[in-house]
Amino acid sequence: MQEAGLEVSRDEAGNLFGRRGAACVWSGSHLDTVPNGGRFDGALGVVVAIEAAGRLRDTELGVVAFRAEETGPMGSRRLAELPDAFVEVHIEQGPVLELLGEPLGIVTGIAGQVRGTVTFEGRAAHAGTTPIDERADALIEAAKFVLHVRESARDGGLATVGALEVVPGATNVVPERVTVSVDVRAPTADGLEKLIEAIGFEPTWRQDPIGMSGPPLEALRAVLPGAPELVSGAGHDAMVLAAAGVPTAMLFVRSLNGGASHSPNELSSAEDIALAVDVLTEALALVEANRLSALPEHERP
Ligand code: GLV
Ligand code: MN
Ligand code: MN
User: Fold this and answer.
1) How confident is the model over 242-269, as pLDDT tens digits?
2) Which CATH number fits domain 112-206: 3.40.47.10, 3.30.70.360, 3.30.70.100, 3.30.420.40?
3) Which of 236, 237, 263, 266 to mutate to test the pocket of ligand 1 (most atoms within 8 A of CB)?
4) Rounded Cα–Cα distance for residues 107 and 88 (Å)
């Protein structure tokens, strides 16, 4: 960020900001990853934004590296107070652009998602002495629930159990307590609600489906006419900003390896990334130029 001529700061949430001047137009993404994740999910959007900022030395803008996106975007809430516009570049994390033979795509919306946990209580007992019929095995109930979650996912919705906590978690003890994570996604708010009801759990975090809009989306369409338009099934910092009322857009970079993501096989090519830098640079310049020209004359720098 310093090499790109940005003034660097950090907030108490751990977000890293690079600013030039008033910085009403922002780009960036997150730096955290899932366990054993790839190198592109998040970091790509930070690097591309810094590159674009380095080319736009005469433009006031900001670059952000968000904290803690994967845990249900938290860091991104803070930026909503600053920008008039946000553009996030991200690896697609799916196979669509690779199948279309297109390097870049414009995101028009992001699916809704909720997360939560469900806990099953049983009774700890000795694995070698407690008859099967005498057990209250929390993991058996949790296992039935995992299958129920999978069977509930219908009509374009998705539901996933990705983590189990088994207590006490020993080979020779009947499980006493199991906590199951639940991740539910759907392209519509109605679909999301139906899935939550079918699964029967209480989400602790939610983000409704949201559309991309305003000058950032128009700028991407102007810079990349005819580009494929996609809806993102993955969540992004962009959805938090869009939900907070910030005009927000996203540019997807083609995923290789069949769209592998949240895995070490995640990959985008250097050529596609270079193209994304070109497009983001033009789009940010356009958004800022249009923003300035819409200001009353006495407010322009
Ligand atoms: C972010 O990676 C998500 O889980 O959608
Ligand atoms: Mn991401
Ligand atoms: Mn991710």
Assistant:
1) 999 999 999 999 999 999 999 999 999 9
2) 3.30.70.360
3) 236
4) 10
